[in-house]
């Protein structure tokens, strides 16, 4: 894995105790990086770190509310004392379902505070550390819901669409400072936040049938794309998006009736 150029790098992962976050922790650690899990619950963050590596020299967990500037600044100082971030994976996110005609403004705002504002605050805090080191990489976990409206999901699609644009704007503004910014957009992935959807076997099978590759994504599928975008192998990739959905987002025209076809 030497071509990745991640050995000894410090990688900060927001939402580090979630399904994708834990997969990123394992993947970057396997590539030789030192990993930091940020999570709203300090105990969860520490558990993700210890699950990755029992040594406190290569894995650390920090309690952090990414929607709170003071909390992000405090976490940033801990990472700065550890050596400063080289890579940021903006992965923290929440879902508060609801139809838009009945959605409470508080639910809309809370989702944007975490899913969008949290990306900006983390980028500002850890981006400063990257600038001081001469460069770095930011990978934002967006979603195919950024371009494919997802019903009964409140601000989720709107927030992820904004994350995608934030990533592109950071790529433009911070590229001259040596910082690359890119997105990974997952499709259907089984994580602790989504696993309830797959408890019903019929629903699971129906979802699998929607995906050209015939399976639901795993957290490792997303982590692998994030590792590539953060690596030296992607040193000339900036302001881009990798869609990791098994081809699901390419199936729109299959829903359009055509004469002569079943």
TrEMBL record:
CDD domains: SDR_c (cd05233). This is SDR family oxidoreductase. SMART domains: PKS_KR. It comes from the Bacteria. One of its GO terms (biological process) is fatty acid elongation. Residues 9-177 form the Ketoreductase domain. GO terms for molecular function: oxidoreductase activity, acting on the CH-OH group of donors, NAD or NADP as acceptor. Belongs to the short-chain dehydrogenases/reductases (SDR) family. Pfam families: adh_short_C2.
């Amino acid at each position: 894995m030497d071509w990745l150029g991640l050995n000894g790098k410090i990688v900060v992962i927001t939402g580090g105790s979630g399904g994708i976050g834990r997969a990123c922790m394992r993947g970057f650690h396997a590539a030789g990086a030192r990993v930091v899990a940020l999570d709203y619950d300090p105990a969860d963050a520490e558990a993700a770190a210890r699950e990755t590596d029992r040594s406190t020299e290569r894995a650390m967990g920090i309690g952090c509310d990414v929607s709170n500037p003071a909390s992000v600044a405090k976490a940033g100082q801990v990472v700065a004392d550890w050596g400063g971030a080289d890579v940021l994976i903006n992965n923290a996110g929440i879902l508060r379902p609801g139809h838009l005609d009945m959605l409470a403004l508080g639910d809309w705002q809370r989702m944007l505070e975490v899913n969008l504002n949290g990306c900006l605050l983390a980028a500002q805090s850890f981006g400063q550390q990257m600038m001081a080191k001469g460069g770095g990489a930011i990978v934002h976990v967006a979603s195919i819901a950024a371009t494919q409206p997802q019903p009964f999901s409140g601000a989720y699609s709107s927030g992820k669409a904004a994350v995608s644009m934030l990533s592109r704007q950071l790529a433009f503004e911070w590229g001259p400072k040596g910082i690359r910014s890119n997105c990974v957009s997952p499709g259907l992935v089984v994580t602790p936040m989504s696993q309830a959807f797959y408890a019903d076997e019929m629903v699971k099978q129906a979802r699998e049938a929607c995906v050209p590759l015939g399976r639901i994504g795993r957290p490792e599928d997303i982590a692998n794309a994030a590792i590539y975008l953060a690596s030296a192998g992607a040193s000339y990739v900036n302001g881009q998006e990798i869609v990791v959905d098994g081809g699901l987002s390419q199936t729109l025209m299959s829903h359009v009736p055509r004469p002569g076809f079943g």
